[in-house]
Amino acid sequence: MFMNIVKSWLIPIIVSISLFLGLRPVFAQIVTPESESNDTLLVGSEVEKNAVMQVYYVSNGEKHFITGSAYANESPDFAGDYITWMGQAVNGNWQVFLYDLSSGTTTQITSSGNNQNPKVSDRGEVVWEGWVFDSWQIFNFDGMKITQLTSGDTSVNPGIEGDYIIYARKDITGTWRSAVYSVSKNRAVDVTTGIASKYPKVRNGKIILGGQGSEKEFGLNADDLFILDLIPLTTTESAGTKEDQATESAEVDNEIPETVTEDDIFEELNATELRSGE
Predict the structure, then answer these.
(1) Domain of 25?
(2) Burial level of 268, CB count in 10 A (0-12/13-18/19+)?
(3) What is the pLDDT of residue 273?
């Protein structure tokens, strides 16, 4: 009698548990579909629809085109769930776009002037070169607004990681200098000068100088430069129209900011240690 009661309760429980364990992966797929994995994400552009360059990404071996316009789309860059590129969208001029993998939405960031070389962070913030008056300048889109970060000297090759935006400036003597801008502090400091400064990057907080095949790590990281509280190069305000930007750039006095070298920084560190020991 007792065994019959146990069997009558135990067997349905075992069957229920087995069904749950067997069907749980199916339920999980229905409730929480697998998101795009960026572990194997690649981006590129090739001639495709409308016989012009179109941007795509490759994930898990599958190619997905995210543009299909009548105009060319080139120079994609990605980080995290975001892809940025430039498209020849307005009167033959290049504009900057942003694609969100998680939502499948595309945002056109710029709509005037000429813009190129966009780079994106894993937070969806974009930096690029915009043509202002007679030179390239660095712009930043923080998800809400566009800010012009530089004026005067030609500024190119931007990169962005976390709070830091890095770029190269060419002064009136033809000297290249690398600079790092802190979004939270709203100011920039020089890193160093030389031809390697034309191709700066921030990678895991470290400053890398030089082009592909000749990269060299700078002696201090981005945090160090701002901890030392070096003299700021510029502060910025939200960018207005391209006409306003051109007027402002025309009025900029091309002064050469003081360059901070590694020797200067280490000398300052030593002086600070001596003062603290007195």
Answers:
(1) 1-32
(2) middle
(3) 52
